[in-house]
Amino acid sequence: MKKDEESLPAGRQVEFKVGNETLRGSLFVPSGKGPFPGVVFFHGSGGIGEMYFEAAESLAERGIVGFAFNYRGAGVSEGIFEEQTLKMGIADAETAFKFFIAQPEIHEKRIGICGASFGGYIAALISNLSNVKSLILVGPAAYLSTDLNRQRDDAGDSVKDFTKSNSFDEIEKFKGKLLVMTSEFDEVIPPEVIEGYLKRAKSATRVEQFVLKGAEHRISINPQARRAFIKKTTDWFLKTL
After folding, report:
1. Can you list the domains of the chain with their CATH numbers?
2. Do 152 and 143 touch, CB atoms closer than 8 A?
3. How far apart are the C-alpha atoms of 174 and 215, rounded to whole Å?
4. Is the pLDDT of residue 37 over 90?
5. Assessment of whether the complete model's pTM goes beyond 0.90
6. How far is the C-alpha of 76 from the C-alpha of 87, rounded, in Å?
7. Cα 234 to Cα 8, 123, 142, 177, 198, distances in angstroms
């Protein structure tokens, strides 16, 4: 999901405000007349939105709007990373989601979310905010509500009972289609977290798991896993949106 900046697709650069700070990202819009289905990408706590530009472009080439952005303190967005908490990241994602579905190119009843790691936790949290039809969680994290004011890079260090994460409560209510994508050699997310998301998705109309062979938690460092992620993500949303 990561290439040299010079070779990344650009999309249409956009920005929006969270408080007094500006968040930035890119919209990848298909040619032709909309409205189109749309997918928003939530990156991990140590990642950047640009990691998902290739996947967003792949969707746009097939008639789906892709949107990737940076939280405060990440990439080209304003803010200082060390000052960002889980709660602030959630607020960023909620604002980005509302910004995205308000775009005139978007079909409001054909919305998808793809979130990785911390972004997967957020994707589960807000999966019931609006008409989210399809959801991909990539190596999703899980946090406790008591950790929301901790910094994003260390909030999970003290988590002992992942089953109490409010993200599981939300995924239990999700009524769309769910894909949980995992890395074969994920050294960060405990297996019980993945199992928790799969088992708690009781209301989903479709639940699947897909394993990225040979991958560690950071898919961006493995070209083969990155390509598999883009292909599976594209195929999934083409079928479910």
Report:
1. 14-240 (3.40.50.1820)
2. no
3. 28
4. yes
5. yes
6. 20
7. 17, 17, 25, 14, 21
